[in-house]
Task: structure prediction
Amino acid sequence: MKKIIILAAVSLFIFNSPVHAQALFIAKGKIEFEKKVNVWKDIDSWSDDEDGDNWLQQIKKTVPQFELSYFNLFFDDSKTLYQPGRELPVDPKIPDWFRGPATDNIVFTNLQAQQSVSKKTVFENSFLIQDSSRKIEWRITSDQRTIAGFDCRKAVGRIMDSVYVIAFYTDQITTNGGPESFNGLPGMILGVAIPRINTTWFATKLELVEVKPQDLAAPAKGKKVDQAGLLKQLQGPMKDWGKSGQRNIWKIMI
Result:
């Protein structure tokens, strides 16, 4: 009986270890992503005016360099749901207006039907965006890195005509999804970097949990619109915001 208990304990440890996770082809579970925004670089990009730059340098001294937040991605072999995860204490040094729009997105993607439903909060307005999944022409490279214990390959794509996206995916997780609305690579995207908005998303861990139907339920509340309609609504009020307005549009439309 003692031998049976020991074997069971060892089997449970191996099953839940990163080594075992890499040995399997995984089709369902939960991934935590850390989203990191370089606040200082955001501030640097606000102005080209010398006097304005001096003022902005003073602002940088009052806020942390990075803003962190966490999201969970539930997935099975055909669907994903990306939503806010564990909360961190809000740093009082970062004013709410520094955080920008669309910071608590919920994104449901039906990979089989190539359809998505997203809930995004944009300056106190809640939008429910229903549209086809974003299609990105990825260029897969030979570069590799390890993320959350998984061997990943680098790919480069472009969205919204001029915004380059760097992604890292693993084929050890067979669902071809990722954080936010990113998908379309031959495996799960575990890392994303968008230099134009000074933001990255990287997986911190995978949990081999049972994924229930409610874990993959699409959001249902908000003003209904498609991607083109949302973009049109944003371009009107933000056209006079200069570079700041354009960056806000990119952040919202990802």
Summary: The chain has one domain: 26-253. Confidence is low (pLDDT under 50) at residues 1-23. The first helix runs from residue 2 to 15. The longest strand covers residues 29-38.
